[in-house]
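Quick question, first post here. What does this chain look like in 3D?
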Amino acid sequence: MNLKKGINFGGWFSQCDHSELRYETFITEDDVKQVAKWGFDHIRLPFDYELVQNKDGTFIESGFHRLDTFISWCEKANLAVILDLHKACGYDFNDAETAKGNTLFQRKDLQDLFVSLWETVSARYGKNPNIAFELLNEVVEENAAEPWNQLIKRTVLAIRKNAPTSTLIYGGIQWNSANTVKFLEAPVDENVLFTFHMYEPLIFTHQKAHWIPGMDMNKGIFYPASMDYFRKESLPLGYKGKDITDTKGEYPCQKIMEDMVVAAFSAAKEKNVGIYCGEYGVIDQAPVEDSLAWIRDLHLIFRKYNVGSALWTYKEMDFGLTENHYEEIRDSMIKIITE
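> Answer (accepted):
Ran it through. Tokens below.
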């Protein structure tokens, strides 16, 4: 399965109001055709459980019909698809360590819903060799590694009853940090990819992001710069900045990016598993030339270690490739990603 040059379709079936208007208009077949024309080979499709599953465990046929339609568009365009469960009943990466909280790992009934969703999805699409299943977008809490490993094993066994050869994808904790791939247990079978997300230094790629606690909404951050600069600027981010603030020494900032990719690559290789980067990108608040430099440096690393990846994201969502902010660098970005 070819998953080298991908792009996300975030905000369509996930992180949205789940209205019929959104479903009908946000993405069309023309968008799929455009992605193929640019030279991408796959689309990572985030979807929330609300698209296909009610909280009582019953399923929503109209939601599956929408997935069917999208998959048919991709088949005609010769694009592979990753079905990425972005939000599960009882688990939302936006609720990290909050009172409203993520209770998936504490409640067996929610785990049963999670497994039943993947049983149904895999029964429906498991015979299609161009569809991969990503079990859950991002597990965030530091104490979740062990319960997540246990739920992975249970879910994989359930999926394999319907989809014995489908590619399965899952990542570590701390928002799929490259540094936490090492906490994943060896897979119970083959055709598995470990995944990570790459947004480091987060203080640069997410500068002025209103949803990140501690982020200065008025401060511009530049790339490249010294590690001392990134450590200092990352301190207000607390837990979300720790991949940078925990580092020591002075060296080019590109080295920390490579070190993180190597950490993910090595952890996967040790367990005889492939590695994949499901998200990376730079927010539309960053200087465009700096954004292009970051994309270029990251893809040099991806090519060095033969890491497939998917850009976040195609449209809107503060990172949309098709938005006006990226106009002067869009062609260069696409060339870097698809060459």
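The chain has a mean pLDDT of 96.
The first strand starts at residue 5 and ends at 8.
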